[in-house]
Amino acid sequence: MDNLVITFARGFGTGGKEIASKLAKELNINCYENRIYKLASQMSGLDEELFEKQSEKLVEKNGILNILKTLPKTKHYIARNEEFNGDDILFYYQKQIINDLAASESCVIVGKCADWILRGNPNVVSIYIEAPRDFCLKRTVEHMHVSEEVATNTIKKTDQYRADYYKYYTGGNYWTNPVNYDMTLNSEKIGIDNCVSLIKEYIKIKYPDYQGNLIATNKEDI
Questions:
Q1: How close are the terminal C-alpha atoms of the chain, in Å?
Q2: According to the model, what pLDDT value does residue 176 have?
């Protein structure tokens, strides 16, 4: 088969980003999240003529995708405490990057409406991670080192931002719609590592010819 792409949507504090990162590591493929946003932001600030020349080289050896790999990965929670305001030009660049990633390599893509952008691609597995609020609250307090009040407000505003973002760029679809995804997993009930294992088992079922690394690895290596 061609490149395999796994997209993740997740509620804030559910561990969705951790699951995505662990899955990518076990499959030995890249995981992209806010590097896409950073590159798209940089691209949107380029001179129009320069970008037109660069956009023709997205999958070439020295093209934009290689630049994307050099950008630092984000290790911390990214919270959204502002109101959502659509940026159609920025989203256009993000969409272009996501489509070119899917065409050029197997990878994991977190957020950015990637499931919707790639919905016509037969080699895409789309995952949604959710969990009860008290589980998300505990994880957010522990990972962000904030009070419960701050964590509660952060979860509420970030999830609302993600819902508004998804609705705006998908033309009215809603972010938590299970029909949009191959699998919807409860990270509290299943557990972070078991979510990774379950997704790998699903990939085996959906793509029996996939040649990637689907053999379980030692959790001490994760």
A1: 27
A2: 92
Question: 155, 13 in Cβ contact below 8 A?
Answer: yes
Show the domains of the chain with their CATH numbers. Answer: 5-221 (3.40.50.300)
* C-alpha neighbours within 13 Å on the C-beta side of residue 50: 7
- C-alpha 93/C-alpha 74 separation (Å) is 20
Q: Which of 47, 83, 43, 79 is nearest to 63 (CA)?
A: 43
DSSP 153-185: HHHHHHHHHHHHHHHHHTTS--TT-GGG-SEEE
Q: Name the amino acid, one letter, at 87.
A: D
Closest alpha carbon to 39 in 114, 90, 115, 107: 90
pLDDT digits (tens, 9 = 90+) for 140-174: 999 999 999 999 999 999 999 999 999 999 998 99
Burial class, 2, CB count within 10 angstroms (exposed 0-12 / middle 13-18 / buried 19+): exposed
